Amino acid sequence: MTAPAANLRINSTRLWDSLMEMAKIGPGVAGGNNRQTLTDADAEGRALFARWCEAAGLSMGVDEMGTMFARREGTDPDALPVYIGSHLDTQPTGGKYDGVLGVLGGLEVIRTLNDMGIKTRHPIVVTNWTNEEGTRFAPAMLASGVFAGVIDQDFAYSRKDAKGLRFGDELKRIGWVGPEKVGARKMHAMFELHIEQGPILEAEGKDVGVVTHGQGLRWVECTVVGKGSHTGSTPMRMRRNAGRGLAQITELVHEIAMQHQPNAVGAIGHIDVYPNSRNIIAEKVVFTIDFRSHVLETLDGMVAELNARAPGICEALGCSFSSELSGFFDPPAFDPVLVGRVRAAAERLGYSHMDIISGAGHDACWINRVYPTTMIMCPCVDGLSHNEAEEISPEWASKSVDVLLHAVLETAEVVG
Fold first, then answer.
1. What does the mean pLDDT of the chain come to?
2. Of 26, 65, 78, 311, which sits 20 to 30 A from 93 (CA to CA)?
3. Is 263 helix (H, G, I), strand (E, B) or coil?
4. What strand order describes the sheet that includes 284-293?
5. Which residues of 205-218 are buried (b: 16+ CB within 10 A; e: fewer)?
């Protein structure tokens, strides 16, 4: 298998223009994007991507979860496709690059191959996975999870947003329920390009992150129940304040994560307080803990310690504690052959690089369970992500897609 020539590069200006054009759809309030999954803005972004794919000569397939598959044919009709995948949906206050770089970077790979007249033995498919973010419909990476067989499709369709709207109904409403059975497609390999969403690459002055592993994740939804009563007339010693349970468990989560440094993180993100009134002591608090580690034993150990200690903390306050797992995936180790190709591509291109562990969850984490998969990371300014101030440079973007181009071509096998 011959490696691509070291002077082969993508069109960096066209890539950046595409990123900026997509960012016009679902604008946020502070320079970023609010293009949450299965909203009208998501539908508009999908339509733009579909038009670009058609102009690039790609055929579009869509599965029953709404995931888009834009295919460039290979010369061998029996060869399995090489997939390039990420997502176009965003957080409510999301940036312009999280996920989007991976999808439009994949499209730029195709456009570059068209410009150069390069043919590959394997087909290449650019993928937009539905509901990667999991903000509107939990859990995250929903469509890729169904594709990999770890999430049931009926369960996915039944997910509800904060307004009680069902995933399946909203997918139908925006017109993106496809005819393909989810998971019916076969893959030769999959690459996912993504911004780092962390500060390591920028701090180390590296152009590209070669992702060897991903962190596993456990989302634990917790409920503390006390007794609602008047904040002014209830004596302190007689209070059953669910808010105190939240406060003390917040410290417990931090303590547990700190015990497992440097290979673990933990925090409470989403919080709902009931009845959420100024002069009523909280009678119930529902919140989600996010534990992550690339070491499975550490990950499960943190959850076990939480469930062992939190009930006693709440009982001492006159409250009760319960929990359930609302999202999960085990830490993946990415395919060593594909990881090697990414590393070799960066070296061939003369780009500085380092091995890195992905701190966030990605669709590649699920697909890695069923097909050879790896990831490429692009630096981002101050490591800021899931924020409208998220930023990358055009140079970082082009270098990461150059590496993607070379790794994909070596895997898809250039013909001629």
1. 96
2. 65
3. coil
4. 265-274, 284-293, 216-225, 320-329
5. ebbbbbbbbbbbbb
Helix boundaries (H) for 99-227: 100-116, 142-147, 153-158, 167-173, 200-204
Task: Write down the pTM of the prediction.
Answer: 0.85
Residues contacting residue 165 through CB under 8 Å, at least 6 positions apart: none
pLDDT digits (tens, 9 = 90+) for 17-26: 999 999 999 9
CB 44 within 8 A of CB 174: no
Amino acid present at 194: H
Whether 211 and 334 have beta carbons less than 8 Å apart is answered as: yes
Residues 257-265: contacts with CB within 8 Å, 24+ apart? Answer: 257/291, 257/302, 260/293, 260/298, 260/301, 260/302, 263/293, 263/294, 263/295, 263/298, 264/291, 264/292, 264/293, 264/295, 264/298, 264/299, 264/302, 265/215, 265/290, 265/291, 265/292, 265/293, 265/359
99-133 pLDDT per residue, tens: 999 999 999 999 999 999 999 999 999 999 999 99
Tokens found for residue 336: 């060593």
Give yes or no for a contact between 188 and 122, defined as CB atoms under 8 angstroms apart. yes
d(CA 45, CA 47): 5
Q: How far apart are CA 413 and CA 36, in angstroms?
A: 36
Residues 6 or more apart in contact with residue 262 via CB below 8 angstroms: none
Q: Which two structure tokens, joined as six digits, stand for 15? A: 């890539």
Q: How far apart are CA 371 and CA 366, in angstroms?
A: 9
Pairing of strands 284-293, 265-274: antiparallel
Find the Cα–Cα–Cα–Cα dihedral 309, 313, 316, 317, rounded to 10°: -150
Could you count the other beta carbons within 10 Å of the beta carbon of residue 175? 11
- pLDDT, one tens digit per residue, over 316-337 is 999 999 999 988 888 999 999 9
